[in-house]
Each structure stands twice: as C-alpha cells, then as structure tokens.
Design goal:
The chain has helices at residues 2-6, 10-27, 34-40, 45-51, 55-78, 85-106, 111-120, 122-145, 154-164, 179-197. The protein is mainly alpha-helical and 201 residues long. It has two domains: 2-53, Arc Repressor Mutant, subunit A; 56-197, Tetracycline Repressor, domain 2 (Orthogonal Bundle), CATH 1.10.357.
C-alpha cells in the first residue's frame, strides 16, 4: 500500500498537506479529522486515504518539511565561508532558538502536532538530531583544521553540544522564559561552549 502511494501525483499530496496545515494552525491537530481535511481538498475521505494512511502520517510529513527548513538554515551557517568556526557555534545556537521560538509563537496550535510526533514518530525526531549532529561535527572539524579549536573527539563533543542546547530546541519548553531571557541564556551557553572548544595558546 505504501509503495502505491509513492506513485500518486505529488501536487495532490502537497494540496493535502497545505490544507491540513491550515486546519492544524486554526483548529489544532487533535480536533482536526481526516474527513475535514478531505472536504477542504474537495475530495472524498476514501480518496484522501489513498495518499495518507492516517492523520499521523500527514503530521509526520508536515513535521519533516518543517525540520528540513531548520536544517537548511543551519547548513547556511556551517558552510558560510565568511564566518569563523567560533562565530558559527554562536550562530548555530542562536539560530536553533530563533527557529524553535518562531514556530512556537507564530503557530501555537501546531504544538499539538509536535507532541503527537514526539510520542508516535520518535524516528523523525531522532533523524533530525542526527542531521544536526552531523553539521556540528563538520563545524568542529573545520575549527580543528584552522587551528582555532582543540577538540579531540568531534562526534562526542557535537552530541554534548546538542544536549546542552536542548532547552532551545524544544517548542514545548518555550513558555518557560521570555524571548529576551532565552536569547541571553543562548548567548551565555555559546560563550561557555567556546571557552571549552578554543585552542589554548
């Protein structure tokens, strides 16, 4: 069944995802039904199920699209030739916060979908973490090569950095502090991390 879905028109899939996202933004993930999404797309519920197995599958597709934007933003930082590796670490942390806080503040009802994905499709979250870790490893290795960092194990260090930055990467934690407080904490964390990464002269 999954294989057959891959051969269906992509433009209709995108139409469904757009309609579902608008529903989720306005009414929330939990209150939205497949029948409502189908109606918004001027199709039958039976036809909708040809494209997506269930509402969770739609949510998963939307989550992947959203997380891909996050990764693309971070790639721009990591591969920016005008930034030093030290600058990139700070920008990486602040960009993570900016993306998470913006998603949470501008689309608060989408947090229901985020919760569902975290509970039911942890593989998507894990893949996102792996993608971010790979970018950090690249950044740390660049810092070593330029003689700016002294990181003996970039893989372990990248994982530790992501763990330390978890506060800025989870939409459900955004109500804890004001945007200003989050930015201050992110700046402090970046400074602390760099203190441990920089090569001693």
């Amino acid at each position: 069944m999954e294989h057959s879905r891959e051969n269906l028109p992509d433009e209709i899939r995108q139409q469904i995802l757009q309609a579902a996202e608008e529903r989720f933004r306005q009414y929330g993930y939990n209150k939205t039904t497949m029948a409502e999404i189908a109606k918004d797309c001027d199709m039958s519920a039976a036809n909708l199920y040809r494209y997506f197995e269930n509402k969770l599958a739609i949510g998963a597709a939307l989550a992947c699209n959203c997380l891909n934007i996050d990764i693309e933003n971070l790639k721009k930082i990591v591969f920016d030739r005008e930034l030093t590796p030290a600058d990139k670490v700070s920008e990486f942390i602040l960009a993570t916060l900016d993306f998470t806080h913006t998603q949470w503040s501008e689309t608060p009802r989408m947090n229901e979908m985020v919760t569902a994905i975290c509970h039911e499709r942890l593989d998507i979250v894990d893949q996102h973490v792996q993608n971010k870790q790979a970018l950090l490893i690249t950044l740390l290795r660049e810092g070593n090569q330029q003689g700016m960092f002294d990181v003996s194990d970039p893989e372990v260090t990248a994982e530790a950095i992501l763990t330390a930055a978890t506060l800025f990467d989870m939409p459900l934690l955004m109500p804890l502090f004001s945007r200003e407080a989050f930015e201050r904490k992110a700046t402090y964390l970046a400074s602390l991390l760099l203190n441990g990464l920089l090569k001693r002269k």
